[in-house]
Specification:
Elements: E1 10-18, E2 22-29, E3 34-41, H1 49-63, E4 73-79, E5 82-88, E6 93-94, H2 95-102, H3 107-126, E7 129-130, E8 139-141, E9 147-149, E10 156-157, H4 179-182, H5 189-205, H6 215-224, H7 230-233, H8 239-248, H9 260-271, H10 293-325
Antiparallel strand pairs: 1-2, 2-3, 3-5, 4-5, 6-8, 7-10, 8-9
């Protein structure tokens, strides 16, 4: 890489990552005097119009998103035969690096990371975008534990997806994509939820629920194999969290949480439980929230009022009979 300014503005310093489509570099914006990250499309893909269009789509999709848990896109450009995207520089490391160092994470920490990821992806869902490539490599964690999701390179616009469409080429990571993606069927926000469930499983168990060296075999596992119970691998995971995790990895999209927002809300409910951070008294679902104790009080009050009314009514009957018998015209008189 030459040391000249990219786009007459960005000073490339060092490579910090690589993906299937592009290399990522630490750079310096000489105009605004700030550190940035620059993603440059691989030279081998420059002649492929499909990849160039996909690269441009990522820039446009991500540039329209503004959320604390999403990496901000600052600029997009072309310098001679190089396409590039300029993003905010996020200090720290990606989640995959963290997992390689620590194997598995503390339960509360793992849930907190996932709550932040779900918040960012939930925002994207509300904006009509499906990420389609969620994996630990795309989740950045700063030293103060702020989480930011990156890489919308294969994201899909929800409004453009046709229910009957079928893809012959499957995009995404076979380790983390959903059963419908593995089958070439159209994705939905629930597809991202499935990937989030796989990532949370990995954070808690220190391994993936499905493992194979073959992409085809991984696809079949996602399509047909039941994921292992997280509690068999890590018994200290609360039963309620295990059931929530199981729901996110359901084979049918309709059986999962519909959006990342919904999944995140369930995790926040578990974390804020009064008795223990992750030991709620009932198992949450996507449609209901834990009933408040006040509802039980209302039931007892209703029973008491009904009983009082019955006693009062019963006491009036003897009084009515006594008054009636005082008059000769009373039909009950002997």
């Amino acid at each position: 890489m030459q040391t000249s300014l990219l786009g007459n503005r960005y000073e490339i310093r060092r490579r910090i990552g690589s993906g299937g489509m592009a290399h990522v570099y630490q750079a310096f914006d000489v105009n605004l005097q700030r550190e940035v990250a620059v993603k440059i499309l691989r030279e081998s893909l420059l002649t492929d119009d499909t990849f160039s269009a996909r690269f441009l789509r990522e820039a446009r999709a991500a540039a329209n998103l503004s959320h604390p848990n999403l990496v901000t896109v600052h600029d997009f450009g072309q310098d001679q035969n190089r396409y590039f995207i300029v993003m905010e520089s996020v200090p720290g490391a990606d989640l995959k690096t963290l997992l390689l160092q620590e194997n598995k994470l503390d339960i509360d920490r793992a849930v907190n990371i996932m709550i932040q990821v779900a918040a960012g992806i939930g925002y994207a869902h509300r904006a009509g975008l499906i990420h389609c490539d969620l994996k630990p490599h795309n989740i950045l964690i700063t030293p103060d534990q702020r989480v930011k999701v990156a890489d919308f390179g294969i994201s899909r616009v929800l409004a453009s997806i046709q229910p009957e469409e079928h893809a012959d080429v499957v995009w995404g990571s076979p380790l983390y994509f959903s059963p419908e993606q593995a089958d070439g069927s159209p994705p939905s926000p629930a597809s991202d939820v499935y990937s989030l469930g796989i990532i949370l499983f990995e954070m808690l168990a220190g391994r993936l629920p499905f493992e194979s060296n073959s992409a085809d075999e991984l696809a079949q596992l996602h399509l047909h194999a039941a994921p292992p119970d997280i509690r068999t691998l890590r018994p200290d995971v609360p039963q309620a969290l295990a059931l929530v995790l199981q729901k996110t990895m359901a084979k049918e999209p309709a059986q999962r949480y519909r959006t990342a927002d919904q999944f995140g809300q369930i995790l926040r409910t578990l974390s804020s439980s009064a008795s223990s951070p992750l030991e709620p008294e009932i198992i949450p679902s996507a449609e209901t929230t834990p009933a408040a104790p006040a509802s039980q009080m209302i039931d007892w009050i209703s029973i008491f009022l009904g009983l009082a009314a019955f006693i009062a009514l019963g006491g009036l009957i003897p009084l009515w009979l006594w008054i009636c018998l005082l008059y000769p015209s009373c039909p009950l008189s002997p």
